[in-house]
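Residues determine shape. We examine one folded chain.
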Amino acid sequence: MTGAGHNRRRRSVLFALLLWLASPFAWAVDWSTLSPEQQRILARFERNWASIPEGRRERLALGAERYAGLSPEQRDALRGRYQRWRKLPREERAQLQRRLEQFRSLSPEQQRALRGQMRRFRSLSPERRNELRERFQRLSPEERRAAFKRMRERRERRHPRRPGSQQRSDPGWRGR
């Protein structure tokens, strides 16, 4: 085989390998690929594992891996949060799941900004947080939109957007 023919064949094989690696079947999370600890944590899913959508299996496997690395105190705290979640009315859980999906659809930059805002809010005294919540709840929808607009404008003055970042007119922009 000539040098050019060999390079062409090598590129074809490399391209096929890349396509295979990018396919969802290449990284399928099969029950047998889970560690014994992950299998123990996810035991209640074993019987139906193959019928669970691939994306959910990946999230479950990653969650089990993270859970295995938690201290006993962290596991207790997580179980407590899960119990509170289970006690929420179905409609409230659905609303929270929609909000989580909205959050996940944000760019990493937007997620960081939102996390920072939440940290700042949580750092306020309980009295100040309640005062802000009550003030916000008393606003009409128009007043809320105006308040959000003012907050965005203040944020823009403090942290101007870099070229190429998403704007409200962009279809991918999810700010409210």
